[in-house]
Amino acid sequence: MQTDTPAVSTRGLTLSYGDFTALQPLDLDIGRGEIFGFLGHNGAGKTTTIRLLTTLMEPSGGTASVAGCDLAHNRIALRRAIGYLPENVRLYDTLTTRENLRFFAALSRIEDARDRVEEVMEFLGITDLADRRIATFSKGMRQRVGLAQAIVHRPQVLFLDEPTSGLDPMGVRQLREVLERLNGQGMTIFMNTHLLSEVARSCSSIGVLSHGQLVFHDTIETVNARYGSEEALEELYLSVVPDREVAA
Amino acid sequence: MPDLSAIPTIALKDARIALRDRFLLAATLALVAAALISLITGTVAMRTDVATYMAAKQQLLALGKSLGSIAAPEFYPLKLMRGTIEQIEIMGAVIALIAGYRAAVEERGRQTLALILTRPLSNWQFLAAKLLGGAGLMATALAFVFALCAVVLALGSGIGIGANDLLRLAITWGASTLYLSAIFAVGFGLSLWLKSPASGLLYAFALWLLVVLVAPQIGDTMDPDNQVAGGVFAQLSIPKAEQTRIKQGFATYETIRNGIEVSSVTKHYERFTFAVLGIKDIYTGKALGPIWADKKGDAWFLILFTLGLGGLVLLRPIRADRLTKET
């Protein structure tokens, strides 16, 4: 595995269903250690892109690599290098937090699974939830356990699909702090989101997807420089996404 | 050599969840209760027969007469397992279908399917683990049922059971595990493949109705020997040679009737287990060797049917649109 390669790199990555193209040929490079915010209207293709990059879907064309692992030829190694938190993850209701995390740690084949689970719970401040079954948890608590399973195996690239969906402001703030700490440890974060304010605060680069096509990709500094710091992202978003989609 | 450790990891997780599943627990207890009610009723009757024989024997001996003046009856406690087998055929199959549905829906609806499939394992390992977990669940629940049946037969029938009886129960347990594992695979596969898991369960029930109830029932109804209690030929005291001659005249009809019956895995399971347990009169008291020679076709059908269904589930790829955000 090469460390000088981008964390995520795609060339002409495409997904089509018959006549419908869910993702237009996508060329994207995300550097290691970045927090990348992926913006777009509902149905723009953000979740599809994450599913392609996490090996859950097969692309119709193009190539991609994550953490230096080729999507087409090195899927198992790629899966070892990624963590994934889908939107509205619910986990196993009848298992406790610790049992859920030990299960996913074992599936990831890490050697110090038990110790690592305790470490991750400590890191996310959920040790007090360790022996409670998930069934009794609020959305925010589930999200934290969901994030714990995504990082338990120390992935190089973390994919988050709408991680702030349904969280209260405190939950959003806690999540932001956790992501910043993870990023501080060198983890690359690829985040689909609707929250422009979160992208402005957390991300180092952004991409905007519209109708399956990448219509913007640059660093947050460039965005701020071009549009000014105040509400820069909103200006940008409105300029690249048609009104009809923004209203939707 | 690929790392297969994910298979026991997922299967054990499923076992842990199943043990905490109140529905499965209640359903298994209901199956146990249904099986035991029919068994206990039979053992009470057999115990009475044994007691009657023993009393007659004592009376003869007290009168100073030879035991040879009354025929020594033969008691076959395993024949009392008929109700249990029939409960497994129908009620056990329903439980297996629902367990298969739950095994699929718990992964789809909770997004855990996506979490598992982004771990370093092949998709077939996930499917194999789910099937093995289901088979393990069926084996455990049935072991509980058969162990209780063995205790009831040993203590309740009045004559106990021997090592050969236990071996026959073990063989029947194995066949029952295969049968219910196949049904589990149907429930799991359809609930995983179809767009909505609920539709999968609906289709699975339609198949259950056809395979478990309709086909064997049509076969039974078309059998003239089943129309009169004890059998038509027996009631009319028709000699064996004459029976054969009459049956030859209905050869085509019998082929069709038998064909409908043997299209159902349930019938093969029933034929095999009824023979092993001696429930079918012509196999009562027979050694296992001749029974195997006669019924190995049914056993192989059961084995190949289960393996074939399992293979089908393993081979079919998991479609990405089954990873819906909400189901």
Automatic annotation (TrEMBL), chain A:
InterPro entries found in the cross-reference section: AAA+_ATPase (IPR003593), ABC_transporter-like_ATP-bd (IPR003439), ABC_transporter-like_CS (IPR017871), P-loop_NTPase (IPR027417)
Keywords: ATP-binding, Nucleotide-binding, Transport
Gene3D superfamilies: P-loop containing nucleotide triphosphate hydrolases
Keyword Transmembrane recorded: no
GO MF, one annotated term: ATP binding
Entry annotated with the keyword Transport: yes
Pfam families: ABC_tran
Top-rank taxon: Bacteria
Every ABC transporter domain range: 8-236
Similarity comment: Belongs to the ABC transporter superfamily.
Record-given protein name: ABC transporter ATP-binding protein
UniProt organism field: Thioclava sediminum
TrEMBL record, chain B:
Transmembrane keyword on record: yes
Protein's name in the database: ABC transporter permease
Transmembrane domains' residue ranges: 23-45, 88-105, 126-159, 171-194, 201-219, 299-318
Alphabetical keyword list: Membrane, Transmembrane, Transmembrane helix
This protein's record includes keyword Membrane: yes
Organism per entry: Thioclava sediminum
